[in-house]
Amino acid sequence: MSTVNLSNAKPSGLKVDALVVGVTKGPKGVVLAAGADEVDKAFKGRLASTVATLGGTGKKNEVVKVPSFGAVTAPMVVAVGLGSAPEGKDAAYDAETLRRAAGAVSRALAGTAKVGLALPTDTPQSVSAVAEGALLGAYDYQAYRVASKAEQKSPVDAFTLVTSSARDRNVKKAMERAHVIASAVHLARDLVNTPPSDLPPAVFADEAVTAAKAAGLSVEVLDEKALKKGGYGGILGVGQGSSRPPRLVKLTYRSGRGKRHLALIGKGITFDSGGLSLKPPTAMEWMKADMGGAAAVIAAVTAIARLGLDVNVTAWAPMAENMPSGTAQRPSDVLRIYGGKTVEVLNTDAEGRLVLADVIVRASEDKPDLMVDVATLTGAQLVALGSRTAAIMANDDDVRSAVHDAANRSGEQMWPMPLPDELRPSMDSQIADIANMGDKYGGMLVAGLFLRDFVGEGLKWVHLDIAGPAWNDSAAHGYTPKGGTGAAVRTLVLLAQDVADGTF
Ligand code: BES
Ligand code: MN
Ligand code: ZN
Is the CB of 412 under 6 A from ligand 1? Predict the structure, then answer.
């Protein structure tokens, strides 16, 4: 991964291949943002007008490259747009604006080894936002390139972030945190981007174990035999159509006895063909990303451990491949979920809720203070909120708000959604305790209500549907690449911090 180092040196003298400054959109055109003054002096006060001449406007995430012709040590100055300047005397740029701008310029400078950042970074918050954005934008996935490898531009290798608070202890801590968070997000992206042929449940479990051990976590993996013995009927039912058997991974981080306990549960369908309720070809295009929830919880718990947060976390990842075959479950089969409740499978493509149900019941036995599941659960999530905004559902208004607040602070787009009781009877089954499908309207909420039925009595539970945000099918933007995005990792880490701090 790339690195960010802090410096309080003058930006004009940095020995880098490109030097980044911020520009904003003023009433009369491009205006330099704080941090650029010293560079502008070296340009004899002409930097803003040069950026304008080259077509720059200062709009958000715009990147304009200006050759320096020796005015500064770096051969090129790069202006990144921050939009309108914040109003008022002490007004600061919001963290997400800085994070996205840093990410956009980081991506635009792929192929450049060393980059200086002279952005408005006078507070610890702004330093960590810029560092995080730069690192998140410095991502690529090259594992499967052979003949085309040489023509790919590598992400920026090293950033030097210029700030007057380079020696501040809080700022140094924030930098460590940015590296930990970015490497966790990169891990989640790598897992999502891995082709499904090479990530069957057993291999996915091995990857989780490797990542977890490196972060000092305890691990436990249930294979198909152990799942059978334990009565995990949901995971087994979904996995039985594949020649590659399912797994349940449990990763444990303990900061100490008596600390609050957070349980994280991530959907890990390594490929979702729909099963016998087969998806049409176009709907299968992203379905290697159907393990994005599991990737997020695995990555988040490694980051939580590395940061040494004062909370106990158990991360669960049920892993299965949903395939059609002679051994696959049939629509109208009845499964026995862990703990005994029965589910009539009316549609084998509603498989995520089946594997999650087992684990929600199992995780409930430990009576965590908060249980959060993360899943690419429904196409209806994309219909409701689009491809970039995840949905937050919960059995408690306060915890739903707490998660929304953590998402806002992390810069992840999420929005609260209801769980209307009147939709629950649509899942009443003719023969079993519940069916895995219900009303065709509000499909995201129906799925959430299904999960709610398995939450242990009196426990607080939140469900994040990240079907859209887990995968970026359009062009890269801000710090978000095409393909796997690592959605929810940052929110989960902040939430763990909140649980540790007792702020909800
Ligand atoms: N993995 C899909 C949901 C999904 C769809 C994720 C599009 C990302 C993008 C899930 O398993 C699924 O197939 N859900 C069905 C449920 C339906 C059969 C009740 C859906 O949303 O169509
Ligand atoms: Mn499905
Ligand atoms: Zn699925």
Answer: no
